[in-house]
Amino acid sequence: MLKGNYFQQGNGLMIRIDWLSFTVDIPSVPSVLSLLGYSMKDFRLLPKGANGYRSQLKHSLYSIFILYDGNENMGIHVDISGSTISDVVSHYQKTHTSITPFGTNAFLTSSFHLSVFANLLGKIVSYGHVTRIDLAIDDFGCKYFNMPELSSIFSSGSYSSKFRKWKELVKYQSGGEQIGHTIYLESRTSSIFPRIYDKQMEQNEQLLYNGTPPIMSLRSVGNWN
Predict the structure, then answer these.
(1) Helix 29-36 to helix 82-95 angle, to the nearest 10 degrees?
(2) Environment class of 41 (CB within 10 Å of its CB; exposed 0-12, middle 13-18, buried 19+)
(3) Which helix (H) or strand (E) holds 17?
(4) Helix %, strand %, coil % for the chain, to 5?
(5) Are 107 and 123 in contact (CB under 8 A)?
(6) How far apart are alpha carbons 224 and 222 in whole angstroms?
(7) Dihedral sign for Cα atoms in the order 188, 194, 198, 204
(8) Is the pLDDT of residue 158 over 60?
(9) How far is it, in rounded angstroms, from Cα 73 to Cα 81?
(10) Phi then psi for 94, rounded to 5 degrees?
């Protein structure tokens, strides 16, 4: 079951939804916010729009952006960062929950086996389309592979994959210390763009190392236009 924007697998891997973007053909911004479980008072108007939209709202606390007032047939576009998805799921669930005659809460969906997030995606698709989903799989402690092992596997061709191309990027700082290691599959223009990277190194560029075990993350970005 998805909890917020992540769920823990029995094999030790953690799967997270790290970004969600979608465009819907709904006539007003308040209606879009109501769908997600928010209201206009939760948002503030930014000085300018983006991506061809003349106007843009941002949640007062979270990274939720509503782009609107674009050209005809552009609809209303929404960008939600991974750290915010748990709040969106919570608001959406509360909005679509009712009290049963037995005094308990019931989530209003005909597909009870689906997670709340999956139900939200279904609702989005009924009004428009998803344009981007980032799916991240984190391997805390590198239980399966570390980056040097993966580099060797890809270099020797000892793998089977639907992705035909790959490239490797290793970053160093002055003094020769390695500060980043990433393997890319396919390209950014592909409909799916997986990348595997040492997440702990990425975090260490911003924070001092605090003894946290290494994390290898596979992030797959899906773009639908």
Answers:
(1) 90
(2) exposed
(3) strand 14-24
(4) 25, 35, 40
(5) no
(6) 7
(7) positive
(8) yes
(9) 25
(10) -65, -40
How is residue 191 annotated by DSSP?
S
pTM of the model: 0.75
Torsions phi, psi of 33, nearest 5? -65, -40
d(CA 182, CA 90): 33
Q: What is the C-alpha to C-alpha distance for residues 29 and 22, in angstroms, rounded to an integer?
A: 14
Q: Encode burial over 136-172: b for 16+ CB neighbours within 10 A, e otherwise.
A: bbbbbebeeeebeebbeebeeeeeeeeeeebeeeeee
The residue extents of the domains of the chain are 6-134, 141-223
Return the half-sphere exposure (C-beta side, CA atoms, 13 A cut-off) of residue 115. 14
What is the SS3 assignment for 27-50? CCHHHHHHHHCCCHHHEEECCCCC
Cα–Cα nearest to 149, from 214, 57, 212: 214
43/208: higher pLDDT: 43
Task: Give the least confident one: 53-57, 94-98, 128-132, 200-204.
Answer: 200-204
Taking residues 169-184, what's their average pLDDT?
87
Q: Which amino acid is at 142?
A: C
Measured between alpha carbons, how far is 78 from 126 in angstroms, rounded to an integer? 15
